[in-house]
Amino acid sequence: MATVLCVLYPDPTDGHPPTYARDSIPEIARYPGGETTPSPRGIDFVPGQLVGSVSGGLGLRPYLEKAGHRFVVTSDKEGPDSEFERLLPEADVVISQPFWPAYLDADRLAKARRLRLAVTAGVGSDHVDLGAAIERGITVAEVTYSNSLSVAEHAVMQILALVRDYLPAHDIVRAGGWNIADAVKRSYDIEGMEVGVVAAGRIGRAVLERLKPFGVRLAYFDKHRLPADVEKELGTTYHDDVRALTAAVDVLSIHAPLQPETYRLFDDELIGTMRRGSYIVNTARAAIVDRDAVVRALESGRLAGYAGDVWYPQPPPADHPWRSMPHEAMTPHMSGSSLSAQARYAAGTREILEAFFDGTPIREEYLIAAGGALVGAGAHAYTAAAGQASPGSTGR
Ligand code: NAD
């Protein structure tokens, strides 16, 4: 019998939804490129219903309990007295989500003496100290691609919301007003602008693809260059250095993993090299930017807008400056947790658990670290080495 400790965000404030806005979600069998969406032996939830919060338990309870395992789901994750930290020494498997991360820094991993598998129900395992996990031979897996396109849609929405100044215009209507000049005085068309992405992996490339029909000029930086035919089809310019990209665009969307090279990359100096009136959208990880540098750049006008859905720590305190800074279009960390995405990452988590308990290989593309090294998707996206601390794992 194994103990599976699962940390999920709290239920809706008015309880688990008795009904839903839609009766079903589209069935998607493959991602672009051909990889199949998660295919566990079975699922015990209805796709399109809320499984990502505590009472939904990712739909895993019937499967795990029938197999004789102990399944504990909690949202209580902060500090030594939290249920998460109290149960950590008993856990064989930890499941966490980036939206409500159960930070697994080196100290917590040292307490997790039985831990063999840390699953990210989603994409992005920076809340786990990958260097310490490598040292301890813990397998880290995530549901690669499960919500990448969900995030790409959100990033495109936030780019348009900022450039067109959608939210202030909407607020005018809600307040009973009708001053068109107020609504348009910061509103532009994106057409003709130069739009860049930092990292053109699954999300960044999908953002480029989705923006192409808007008649923008596209550019990107990534440590792995896209194939020449893809660059040509997108009409995108490659910059081999982040500084060259930031200086050349009006809109920048960030899609790199959080790791030592990207930690606080966007500081006063780098943001200062951007054109006056640039926009940044960050749906990757908040700690890739310097929190207060963003506020200063919005106040000075260097940035005309900042949006995203990632914060640090998560959840952020009520007085976090990004809640009240000017020209923001922030959301809570929800882009990768739409009901559509939940169906995929819940099924993918089940697929990973089935492989783990059956003793069969976990899909290579789901693996971040295993056997004391970065492997699979992790070897492509991350750089952690044994013992090297991951900056996102402490939650600070
Ligand atoms: P991916 O692995 O497909 O792409 C990551 C890309 O980053 C790769 O192309 C890699 O070469 C590039 N990269 C790595 N280090 C880099 C560096 N130092 N500089 C430039 N490029 C670098 O992953 P993805 O599905 O595109 O997701 C990207 C990130 O988005 C995740 O790591 C995660 O942090 C974030 N994410 C956020 C949400 C959300 O809900 N907001 C959901 C999913 C993923």
TrEMBL record:
Question: What reactions does this protein catalyze?
Answer: formate + NAD(+) = CO2 + NADH
Alphabetic keyword roster? Cytoplasm, NAD, Oxidoreductase
UniProt protein name: Formate dehydrogenase
A Pfam family this protein belongs to?
Answer: 2-Hacid_dh
- Specify the taxonomic lineage: Bacteria, Bacillati, Actinomycetota, Actinomycetes, Micrococcales
Q: Which EC number applies? A: 1.17.1.9
Give residues annotated as binding NAD(+).
148, 202-203, 222, 283, 309, 333-336
Similarity section: Belongs to the D-isomer specific 2-hydroxyacid dehydrogenase family. FDH subfamily.
Which biological process terms from the Gene Ontology are attached to this UniProt entry?
formate catabolic process
Boundaries of every D-isomer specific 2-hydroxyacid dehydrogenase NAD-binding domain copy: 156-335
GO annotations of cellular component type:
cytoplasm
Q: How does it assemble?
A: Homodimer.
Tell where it localizes: Cytoplasm
Quote the function comment for this protein. Catalyzes the NAD(+)-dependent oxidation of formate to carbon dioxide. Formate oxidation is the final step in the methanol oxidation pathway in methylotrophic microorganisms. Has a role in the detoxification of exogenous formate in non-methylotrophic organisms.
Tell me which NCBIfam families the record gives: PRK07574.1
MF (Gene Ontology)? formate dehydrogenase (NAD+) activity; NAD binding; oxidoreductase activity, acting on the CH-OH group of donors, NAD or NADP as acceptor
